Amino acid sequence: MHEDLQEILITEEVLQERVQKLAAQISRDYKGRCITLVGVLKGCVPFLSDLLKRLEVDTNVDFMMLSSYSGSQSTGVVRTILDLKQNIEKKDVLIVEDIVDSGLTMGYMLKNLSTRQPRSLEICTLLDKPSCRKTKVPIKYKGFVIPEKFVVGYGLDYNELYRNLPYIGVLKKSAVKGL
Ligand code: IMP
Ligand code: MG
Q: Where would you tag: which of 35, 37, 48, 76 has the fewest CB atoms within 10 A of its CB?
């Protein structure tokens, strides 16, 4: 375990098993169709990569980068920093996100992408922290529901660190400034 962590919340083995199950479920649901995965950078990267390798349907990948966070605090205002390269009109779009916390980011994504008239638009998030929700978000696929803790690893960062950890953990108080 990384020395800045107080505990591991989800081990690598449990993460991988869950991702495999999600991929199987998504492959069943989208059978015969082509999925356009829209990853939300940068937190989605390990999750999207593991999910992608396990999907058994045609898949097309694109990314968006948004901003609302600075450190561990959300500013509440979501902006597009990097937009999709593809036209998603009439496409089956599946947003891939690391965590839904307040729901503001996913609320923004749904509103923004739905104006482009996809055939379908759903959310797949690795983690769901429902205790912090400020706006209701319909989540079709979720990996784990977690308690109100600031977590890092497997794509999730604190000031751009810890994304490389293969598990999800909780930072020690001493490693966090301003939590
Ligand atoms: P929301 O808009 O509040 O739902 O926040 C979503 C984004 O905030 C996620 O995509 C993450 O990048 C970031 N975030 C929320 N909670 C955590 C956390 O516990 N650890 C790391 N990043 C988080
Ligand atoms: Mg994110």
A: 76
d(C-alpha 66, C-alpha 49), whole Å = 19
Q: How far is the CA of 97 from the centre of ligand 2 (A)?
A: 5
pLDDT digits (tens, 9 = 90+) for 23-65: 999 999 999 999 999 999 999 999 999 999 999 999 999 999 9
Of 91, 111, 109, 87, the closest CA to residue 100 belongs to: 109
Segments making up each domain of the chain, as ranges: 5-27+34-175
Q: Measuring CA to CA, how many Å separate 109 from each of 101, 127, 142? A: 14, 17, 17
CATH placement of domain 5-27+34-175: 3.40.50.2020
pLDDT, tens digit (0-9, with 9 covering 90-100), for 5-16: 999 999 999 999
Report the run of H or E that residue 108 belongs to, with start and end.
helix 104-114
The CA 137 to ligand 1 mean position distance, Å, reads 14
Q: How far, in Å, CA of 20 to CA of 11, rounded?
A: 14
Quick one: tokens of 23?
Answer: 């991929």
